[in-house]
Amino acid sequence: MTNFWRRVADLYVDGFKNMRVGRQLWALIIIKVFIMFAILKLFFFPDVVKEKTPAGGSEAQTVRTEILGR
Q1: pTM of the prediction?
Q2: Position 27 pLDDT exceeds 80
Q3: Which residue of 24, 33, 43, 61 has the lowest C-beta tally within 10 Å?
C-alpha cells in the first residue's frame, strides 16, 4: 500500500513540475480564494456572536438563547 501512495505522489509532483500555463492558473486560483475568504470575510461578514454577547458573558449561552428564542 505504501508503494501505491508513493506512485500517486510521484504522479502529482511530476505533473506540477512540467506545467507551464498551469502554474499561472493555480496562482490565480489561490489569489481568488484568498480574496474570497480573507478579504470579503473582514468587510462583509461581521462577528455577530461577539456583538450580541454581553461583556464577560458566554458566547455559547448567547448562541443557545438565540436558537431557543426563534
Answers
A1: 0.46
A2: yes
A3: 43
